[in-house]
Design brief:
Chain B: It catalyses: L-glutamine + H2O = L-glutamate + NH4(+); N(2)-formyl-N(1)-(5-phospho-beta-D-ribosyl)glycinamide + L-glutamine + ATP + H2O = 2-formamido-N(1)-(5-O-phospho-beta-D-ribosyl)acetamidine + L-glutamate + ADP + phosphate + H(+). The complex is a heterodimer of chains A (80) and B (229). By secondary structure, chain A is an alpha+beta fold. In chain A, 35% of the residues lie in helices and 29% in strands. The relative contact order of chain B is 0.18. The chains are: A alpha+beta (80), B alpha/beta (229).
């Protein structure tokens, strides 16, 4: 099973890199970008075949290592 | 007094702390490789600056899960003093020994220069050699020193006097103009709730010898020697 994890900064946490991306897009002439937020994408290849168990395991991985929950949120997508 | 300096792959200020401790203690600190979880009983554990594990994932994230950190966390929870400088502060935050997180500098630039710090309190084992409110000159060198904690956490830090140092001007003014990295409330260093763990971004170990351009960092190591000998 594949787990795809997005880690993003929480709302309200200043994202200077996202701000710089937003600014540069504007200066390149791309209009209409209201906000840019930068995050991380992590893909895991799991041996687990049970979706519920996989979700539980990946959640623990996010809490323990993959995300810093002081500043970051994470979302998990599982695909057989 | 006995001290240990934990050395991670990518640490680069370990020998600076070693020299600062040697000069203040008059004896050799123990250098502990990150894979050695069973090191001698010591009075002080130092986590040095650098770029441990290449800052992979997040600064300090990998080191915080290394075998030696399990032992450091256990000893810190028993009251052993722990000093984390720069990357050491990031490791302390990632391991939960001090509250908050260190994010990318608000200006996105690596900041490497001497700046001024206000010593918030001197009733700590780390700062008894300073005066409360004293302004000291200490170098910083970091890309991710932007201190963040949620509003509840920030209030708790301020209410419990857990802020150790704030970035300020040469005259002691704490304001936005003297904030090098966007840290909330100009925070440059914090204590844990018990006060036995200090994490700070600036490098006192780099200004302990007049030959290096200043000695404002030396009082921290002398404070520790006075408290722990």
């Amino acid at each position: 099973m594949k787990a795809r994890i997005h880690v993003t900064l929480k709302n309200g946490v200043l994202d200077p890199q996202g701000k710089a991306i937003e600014h540069t897009l504007g200066s390149l002439g791309f209009a209409g970008v209201n906000q840019a937020r930068q995050g991380k994408f992590i893909e895991l290849d799991l041996e687990e075949t049970d979706k519920a168990k996989a979700h539980e395991a990946v959640t623990a991985m996010c809490e323990k290592l993959l995300a810093n929950t002081v500043i970051e949120n994470y979302s998990i997508d599982l695909e057989q | 007094m006995k001290a240990a300096v934990i050395v991670f792959p990518g640490s680069n200020c370990d020998r600076d702390i070693q020299v600062a401790l040697r000069q203040s203690m008059g004896s050799e600190p123990q250098m502990v490789w990150h894979k050695d979880a069973d090191f001698d009983s010591v009075d002080l554990i130092c986590l040095p600056g650098g770029f441990s594990y290449g800052d992979y994932l997040r600064c300090g994230a990998m080191s915080a899960k290394s075998p030696v950190m399990k032992e450091v966390i256990a000893r810190a929870n028993k009251g052993v003093p722990v000093l984390g400088i720069c990357n050491g502060f990031q490791i302390l935050a990632e391991s939960g020994l001090v509250p908050g997180a260190l994010m990318r500098n608000a200006g996105l630039k690596f900041v490497c220069r001497d700046l001024h710090l206000k010593v918030e309190r001197n009733d700590s084992i780390f700062t008894s050699g300073y005066a409360a409110g004293q302004t000291i000159r200490i170098p910083v060198a970091h890309h991710d020193g932007n201190y963040f904690v949620d509003s509840e956490g920030l209030k708790a830090l301020e209410d419990n006097n857990q802020v150790a140092f704030r970035y300020c001007g040469a005259d002691g003014t704490v304001d936005l103009a003297n904030n090098p990295n966007g840290s909330l409330n100009n925070i440059a260093g914090v204590y844990n709730a018990k006060g036995n763990v200090l994490g700070m971004m600036p490098h006192p170990e780099r200004l302990c010898d007049a030959a290096l351009g200043g000695t404002d960092g030396r009082a921290m190591f002398e404070s520790l020697v006075a408290a722990l000998s």
